[in-house]
Amino acid sequence: EVQLVESGGGLVQPGGSLRLSCAASGFIFGDYFMDWVRQAPGKGLEWVGRIRNKANSYTTDYAASVQGRFSISRDDSKNSLFLQMNGLKTDDTAIYFCARDITHGAPGSYWGQGTLVTVSS
Amino acid sequence: DVVLTQSPLSLPVTLGQPASISCRSSQSLVHTSGYTYLHWVQQRPGQSPRRLIYKVSNRDSGVPDRFSGSGSGSEFTLKISRVEAEDVGIYYCVQGSHWPPITFGQGTRLEIE
Predict the structure, then answer these.
(1) Contact state of B107 with A44 under an 8 Å Cβ cutoff
(2) Which of A109, A110, A113, A116 to mutate to test the interface with B (most CBs of B within 10 A)?
(3) Chain A closest CA to B69's CA: distance in Å?
(4) Which of A16, A33, A50, B94 gives the lowest tally of CB atoms within 10 Å of its CB?
(5) Is B94 in the A-facing interface, judged by CB distances under 8 Å?
(6) The sheet that has A80-85: what strands, in order across it?
(7) Smallest Cβ distance to A47: which of B48, B55, B103?
(8) pLDDT digits 0-9 by tens, B1-41
(9) Could B100 and A102 be called an inter-chain contact, meaning their C-beta atoms sit closer than 8 Å?
(10) A75 to chain B, minimum CA–CA distance in Å?
């Protein structure tokens, strides 16, 4: 069974930093692109960024709203995905979901349960 | 960036009746590969999202056959043949044909009337 479990959320002051983790199991983690998606309170889904797999050089892409502040990395040996968030703003308050390739062109796109990040003074 | 526009944004439906959600793109979603990476995601109240339909019309594993997707180019539709209580939630279209960025529609809230 595929599982994605996020952790690391919490309350942080504006300008602060936070590192989210996502533990994956039930599939060959290293084969897949991985995404972070967020959802502000009462709002829709917003793609945050993506990291490709080793075959695609682990390259990353980000939404314009987080470019230069957020960084995605992965450790395939530990089946783990990370989101380093720096320079946090109140607008970054959201539930952050990790997901297995949300635009995968084959069956099986999975999402975690999410972790809440609150940016407030 | 590709803009996805969903309609309606709110959809009250009687149990057992059909429902239909439209998703229109600001540009054709046909990828250079020839495939169209337009998908549908369901988010039930208090739950994380799950994908229902991939590449316009293919159901993901475990998705009931009352859900179907159709469309081409820049106009797409998600249909539910007979709405059940468990279908309450918000439905999003999402595109991966022209990224970054991956973009979502605004979401359509389906409720039972």
Answers:
(1) yes
(2) A109
(3) 14
(4) A16
(5) yes
(6) A3-7, A18-25, A80-85, A70-75
(7) B103
(8) 999 999 999 999 999 999 999 999 999 999 999 999 999 99
(9) no
(10) 23
**Residue whose entry in the numeric block shows the structure tokens 């043949």:** B81
Q: How many residues are present in chain A?
A: 121
The count of C-alpha atoms lying within 13 angstroms of the C-alpha of B6, restricted to the half-sphere facing its C-beta, is 26
pLDDT in single tens digits along all 121 residues of chain A:
999 999 999 999 999 999 999 999 999 999 999 999 999 999 999 999 999 999 999 999 999 999 999 999 999 999 999 999 999 999 999 999 999 999 988 888 899 999 999 999 9
| Contacting residues for A20 by C-beta, under 8 A, at least 6 apart | A6, A7, A8, A9, A36, A82, A83, A85, A96, A98, A115, A117
Interface mutation target, options B23, B36, B51, chain A, most CBs of A under 10 Å: B51
User: B79 — contact with chain A (CB < 8 Å)?
Assistant: no
- E strands within A16-114? 18-25, 34-39, 45-51, 60-62, 70-75, 80-85, 94-100, 110-111
Nearest to A5, CA basis, from A101, A100, A98, A109: A98
